[in-house]
Design goal:
Blueprint: H1 12-17, E1 52-54, E2 68-70, H2 76-91, H3 96-100, H4 104-115, H5 120-138, H6 151-154
């Protein structure tokens, strides 16, 4: 009988060597990991087992409203899967190569696909969101190398 196939994630030493792999949260794990919470942020941090998660630990402006994720609205049969996926979206960090290897040709093809059939205003909004990836990368002391979208130099209409 053939043994069980293992993946790199089955080996704890591989997990420790890869800073992008998150450990599985337990019921009492914080919803927002400490590394994402600014010093001085006093908003309470929800626990993984809570049905309503506060996004307060991610908000530094005391005047902003605090958004919450209500997991009770998710179908019970999918709740545990979505709970983990949402937790990973909050706490995970994409590998630098995820956005760095994008070429101008990739941008053009993706923009054409995303804006196909959209109204002009909606298409511009989508392109601006994509431009934000590049713009925010430029603000980092350690930029990830996001390629400048072609519409930043050619204009949105092209």
């Amino acid at each position: 009988m053939r043994g069980r196939e293992t993946s790199p994630r089955d080996n704890s030493s591989d997990l420790e060597a890869d800073p992008y792999i998150l450990p599985l949260p337990g019921p009492e794990s914080p919803v927002v990991l400490d590394r994402w919470i600014s010093a001085g942020n006093t908003h309470p941090n929800s626990r993984y087992s809570d049905d309503v998660w506060s996004m307060g630990p991610l908000i530094d402006n005391p005047g902003d409203s605090i958004h919450k994720i209500n997991l009770r609205r998710c179908p019970a049969s999918l709740r545990s899967e979505f709970r983990l996926l949402i937790w990973i979206l909050i706490n995970g960090e994409l590998r630098p190569t995820y956005v760095s290897d994008c070429t101008v040709e990739h941008w053009k093809a993706y923009a054409a696909k995303c804006t196909s059939g959209c109204a002009r205003d909606h298409a511009q909004t989508i392109l601006r969101w994509l431009s934000d990836l590049w713009a925010f990368d430029q603000l980092s002391l350690s930029p990830r190398g996001v390629t400048r979208p072609p519409w930043e130099s050619e204009g949105l209409d092209d």
